[in-house]
Every structure is written in structure tokens, then in C-alpha cells.
Amino acid sequence: MSPSRTLVYAGPTISPEEVLAAAPHAEVRPPVARGDLHREEWRRGDTAVLIDGYYRERLSVGHKEILWLLDAGVRVVGAASMGALRAAELGPFGMTGVGEVHGMYASGEVDGDDEVAVLHGPAERGYPPVTVALVNLRHGCREGARTGLVPAEAGERIVAAAKARPFTHRSWEELEQAVDPGDREALGTLRRKIAGGEWDVKRLDALAALRQPTEPSTEPPAEPAVRWAAESALTGVTHYEALAWRSRREYAPGRWMTDLDVLSAARLYADDYPDVHEEVLTGLLAGFAAERGLTTGAYARARLGEGAGDGEGAGDGEGAGEGGGEGPLPGNLASWLTEAERDTLSAEERLTLVMVRVWPVWQSEDWRPAVLERIRRSPRWPEWCDLVARADDAAERTRGKLAVPAPAIAGTVFSRRWNRPGTGARIELARRGFLDMEDLGVAAGRFFALDVRGAGGR
Fold this sequence. Notes:
It contains 24 helices and seven strands. The chain is mainly alpha-helical.
């Protein structure tokens, strides 16, 4: 088994060099933004340390993204900045909060994003801070009062003056103009101590968080609460969403596609796609069967239940059978096969093919990653990418002129492409991995304008 990974999302609170000095085996990532967590291939036992995150330039990291990681067995630690804020919000669901800034949010002492936000320079220059974080001022004023270096009353006035300004205007120079002249000496002390790191609470909290992954947790597992949150309609994140985020790319200014969009193009337009689909899913079934010491047909019979073919039914264990009888399938299963398939395939082949076609009902394993791995190697991959781009172009050209119908109707219209002798719509949908006409219509919606214009090809 591969060793667990620790990924740290940081900058400008702490530099990559400081991260690696504290956690030599960590992988450093830029500040976290919406979708970034989905782009990684996480495994149970990994750790994500969230320190910095985007607020304005990009959408901030979503709660359900973090809940999805927690439900997948990834430990998520938050501190210092965006991480502290999210940890205070998601502590009940298993996210670990570290440090004083997290404590401020968790206790309700502070509640605004602007408390930790700073204006900073570009990544290429190491995110140099242009403004000072309000939580650093709060911490510095407390330390100043404790040590006698900053009068308590002056500290209160400085914090109030900073709080009254937008975080983008909390540079030391602007604060010097905003505070009372008599408090400027105290402000200078704060500047020296914070810039020197001694009173930089965000950096201190970040360093504490980097020590967390190697320290065993003394808290009871929060798995039940996490599962409930991650699977609820409000916060749930599906593996489909994660797969989409990981492969999302801007193929033209303002236009995006994912590998799942390209997969949809292949499913909708490639005449040979059903062969690829059934071959890959049959391979997956063979793997599941081998794990249980069964043939693929015996495994399919066990999953489909007694009566799936004549002969003795097979259980999910040793001696479950080597193929079974050659009699006809029950009508509810036989309806998934064409007449030619029923007449020419062996009993095991019939059972396997039925199992492939009823996959969404009987198998919880998502087939899309395996099919994607296969079709990414196809020489036709660029062609299917181009179909997505052409579909977007057609949709843009017909905007306001062509209304995309409801999914069930769009699916019915699109399915006419696949009419062929000896088969029916139900089988043709299943051969491409669609549940029903509505499921097909959802995938076809993006391509509807292209299809209406007759530009999709066959």
C-alpha cells in the first residue's frame, strides 16, 4: 500500500520553505479555492492541512468539499486563516481546528472573513503581504498588554481603527494615518513584533497545524456525523462531482469542459461506444467475480438472484457453480437482450451481458472512471473533445432562438439516432450506460443545439 500523503494549502501565511522545514514529507499547494480538493486523488489515511484560501479572486473552498474528504477517510486540519474559519464551522463533523485563530472563530469572538484576510502580491513572488491581518493585531495587542509593551487602551483603539477599515486598506502606512497620533508608537511596536514573527499568530498557528498530522488524535471518531452530513441533500458531494472537478479545464476563454463531458460526447455519438462500454464493464465484473472465486456468470447469477437461468442457483461463496443451465432467462431479465443475443449466447454470456446492462441497479461501483481510462487512450479522443466545443458553439449561436426541452423529451428526441432492427430503446440506452430517457436527456442537453443543426454526425 502506498504511504499516506499530507497536502498543505498555504500562502501567504507561511512560505513553502517553512512548510517543508516543519513537515519535510508534505506536498505544498497554493491557497485552496473551490474545486481544488476534488482535483486530488485522495486515499483513506491522507491528511489535508488547510491554512490559506481564496476569498475574492476565486470562489472560496466549499463546506461540502471538505465533508466529502472527511467521509472518504481523509483527515482535514484547519488553522490560521481560511482553514481556521472552516474548521470552526465543520468541527462537529470531524474537521480538526488548531490554534488561537481557530479558537477565536469557534468561541464567536470573531466571525468575519475579513479578520484573517490580507492583500498580498503574486505567487511568483511568494505572496508578499501588503496589509496586516486583523487577528494578528488582536493577538499582538493582547501580548503587548501582557508584556507591558503596548498599553491595553492603545491596543483597543488600534483594533477598533483597523476594524473600521476594509481589509484591503489595512496596510501599516494606512493604519498609521488612521490611529490617534499618541498610539503610533504602540502601532510601531506591533509592526516590529508581527513582522518579526513573534506576534504573528497566523504563522504560529500554521506551524502548530503542521505538527498535527504526526500526532495521534485523542478525539473519538466523528464518522457517523460526517457520513450524515456528506450524504445529505444540502452538503453531499458525489464521486461524479469529484471526477468532474479533477478534469475541469478551460479550453477557450470563458469555456470549460471536463473529461465527463467528453465521455458524454462518445456515449452519444460514437457508433462503436457500446462495444467499449460492455467490454470494460465485463472486465470489471470479472474482477469482482475473481475476488470471490467465481466465474463471471456465476457471480452475475448470484447478484441477479435465484431463477436467473435454469439449473441450481448460485450463492455468493465457494462452489457457487461453473456456468449453470442453458435454459431461458426469466422475462424480466430476458428483456435486456435482443432476440439474436438470447438465441446465440451461452448461459454465462447471457447472464454477464444482462448484469452489464442493469449495472446501475445491481452494482454500486461507478463504471465511469474505468471507461474513461479506456477512451482517453482512443485516437478519437480529440474528435470527442471537438464535439463538446462544437456543441458549446452551437448553443451560443442559437441562444434565445432555440429552447432546450425538458430532459425526458430531449432524451426521446436524441434516442431516435439509435433505432435499429431487432432492438429497442431500453436496450440501446443500457448499451451506453443511461438509466432512462431523462438520464439521456440530461447528457444530451448540452449537445441539443448541435444535434438540431445536424452537425453532430453519427
